[in-house]
């Protein structure tokens, strides 16, 4: 009897699989899990499960006045939920990486000549309720000499720019001002702000309101016309040290000398529950991790949920800085997912080769970029470019030369006409009108985009869990300090507060 080559190969494959399963399982042992397949893992991701997580995250925020800011009850519940679901799979080694960081929160109200104006609270501002005329500060208030004698007993009005907000306010306090209004250096309202530290040697802090450039210029114009402009600033503020944790889950199978790391930050801003920023990324990688648990991998996969990102990439920097040189070398690549469901979304891929942004990632980042471009091309989706500008948790990995990449969908920046043509939505409107606001709830999520990006995460994680072909694995030189650690508190905070610096 003549047997075809195809039949022989089929029988051979079946025998090999049976022997593989027998050798790995054996009598009385559980059968070997199948090797992960990118398409199968991608297909297992669905919006129903994502939305289930979203409603849980929203419920957690209600434990702490509608926020999941790091160290809050809402945030702690988020971390426990992630760990509990992963524990149930039995597929991961899970740890809490604990650290302590200073949490600050301030709310402010501003009334000028009896009329209410929008304002942002400024971290480390003292509490107070003060009423006084406005006095315009010279230049940008970065020198003590910029504060004229007329500031004494009044509220200093100073523009943002050049130096830290804390220095401006300290100089105002030293000059005898009873309060400070800082106005933005663009017409728009500021996103957030901090004085950078609980106190400064240049002078005592005074209560602070932070307003739009448009309103600040209007107050100056009124004063220039000879009018007395009287303001009332009301600030409530507190500062405390909080212990928090990164959640780290590493597959029990796979080569740990070639770690695939995927991360998203688990905390929100104090102002809201953060379902898009960055609940969307956190829930996206959680769902991928839960589905990956059904498979075995060749390269170990590590999922990390960062804490205190909104205070300046604190958790990710802590993690990378505390890795030994040997352990850093084991990380083959890093994938970051911060805001992947913006309501007026764009599809942005990090520009690994720097062709579009002139800021390439470490060697190998271009390979990650190509994988994501090819994935979205296969689904007839155009992609824009995100820049490694330092505004999310990829930065510490970039600092130590680890190939990096990821996805994002935009924050408070405005969608262009070209973007609306590519992706739908509305040109001239922010990608996320609820960015860093209380309205960042379940209804703020673009579920179609969120599901597609989560499937893209699954595709990339499964692909690299099988092979890191093209990713350089030469020994990297040791790094003694990270760029982020050299920045002031205010500069660090800006890293997590302006994701629009990240898109081109």
TrEMBL record:
Enzyme Commission (EC) number: 3.4.-.-
Entry-linked InterPro entries: M28_fam (IPR045175), M28_SGAP-like (IPR041756), PA_dom_sf (IPR046450), PA_domain (IPR003137), Peptidase_M28 (IPR007484)
Needed co-factor(s): Zn(2+)
Superkingdom of origin: Eukaryota
Pfam family, one: PA
A single GO molecular function term of this UniProt record: aminopeptidase activity
Residue ranges of domain Peptidase M28 in the record: 246-459
GO BP annotations listed: proteolysis
Family from the record: Belongs to the peptidase M28 family. M28A subfamily.
UniProt cross-references to PANTHER family, sorted A to Z: METALLOPEPTIDASE M28 FAMILY MEMBER, PEPTIDASE M28 DOMAIN-CONTAINING PROTEIN
Stated name of the protein: Peptide hydrolase
Annotated source species: Candolleomyces aberdarensis
């Amino acid at each position: 009897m003549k047997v075809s080559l195809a039949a022989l190969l089929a029988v051979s494959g079946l025998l090999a699989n049976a022997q593989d399963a027998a050798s790995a399982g054996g009598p009385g042992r559980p059968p070997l899990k199948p090797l992960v397949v990118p398409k199968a893992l991608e297909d297992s991701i669905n919006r129903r499960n994502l939305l289930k997580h979203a409603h849980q995250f929203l419920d957690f925020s209600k434990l702490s006045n509608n926020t999941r800011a790091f160290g809050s009850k809402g945030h702690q519940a988020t971390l426990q939920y992630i760990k509990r679901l992963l524990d149930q799979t039995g597929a991961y080694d899970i740890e809490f990486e604990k650290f302590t960081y200073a949490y600050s929160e301030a709310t402010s109200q501003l009334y000028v000549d009896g009329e209410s104006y929008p304002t942002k609270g400024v971290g480390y501002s003292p509490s107070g309720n003060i009423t006084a005329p406005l006095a315009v500060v010279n230049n940008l208030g970065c020198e003590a000499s910029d504060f004229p004698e007329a500031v004494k007993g009044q509220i200093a009005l100073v523009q943002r720019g050049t130096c830290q907000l804390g220095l401006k306010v300290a100089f105002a306090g030293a000059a005898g001002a009873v309060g400070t209004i800082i106005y933005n250096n663009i017409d728009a309202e500021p996103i957030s702000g901090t004085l950078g530290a609980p106190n400064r040697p240049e002078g005592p802090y005074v209560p602070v309101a932070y307003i739009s450039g448009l309103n600040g210029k209007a107050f100056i114009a009124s004063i220039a016309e000879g009018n007395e402009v009287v303001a009332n600033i009301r600030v409530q503020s507190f500062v405390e040290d909080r212990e928090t944790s990164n959640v780290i889950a590493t597959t029990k199978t796979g080569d740990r000398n070639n770690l695939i790391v995927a991360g998203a930050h688990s905390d929100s801003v104090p102002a809201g529950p953060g379902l898009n920023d960055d609940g969307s990324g956190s829930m996206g990688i959680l769902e991928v991790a839960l589905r990956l648990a059904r498979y075995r991998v060749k390269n170990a996969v590590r999922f990390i949920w960062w804490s205190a990102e909104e205070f300046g990439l604190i958790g990710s920097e802590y993690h990378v800085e505390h890795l030994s040189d040997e352990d850093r070398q084991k990380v083959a690549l890093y994938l970051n997912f911060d805001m992947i469901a913006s309501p007026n979304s764009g599809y942005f891929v990090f520009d690994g080769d720097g062709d579009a942004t002139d800021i390439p990632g470490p060697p190998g980042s271009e390979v990650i970029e190509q994988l994501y471009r090819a994935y979205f091309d296969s689904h007839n989706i155009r992609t824009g470019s995100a820049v490694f500008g330092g505004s999310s948790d990829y930065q510490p990995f970039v600092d130590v030369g680890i190939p990096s990449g990821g996805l994002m969908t935009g924050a408070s920046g405005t969608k262009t006409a070209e973007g609306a043509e590519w992706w739908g939505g509305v040109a001239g409107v922010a990608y996320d009108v609820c960015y860093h606001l209380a309205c960042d709830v379940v209804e703020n999520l673009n579920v179609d985009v969120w599901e597609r990006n989560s499937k893209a995460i699954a595709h990339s994680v499964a692909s690299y869990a099988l092979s890191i072909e093209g990713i350089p694995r030469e020994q990297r030189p040791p790094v003694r300090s990270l760029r982020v650690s050299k920045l002031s508190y205010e500069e660090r905070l800006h890293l997590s507060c302006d994701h629009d610096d990240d898109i081109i």
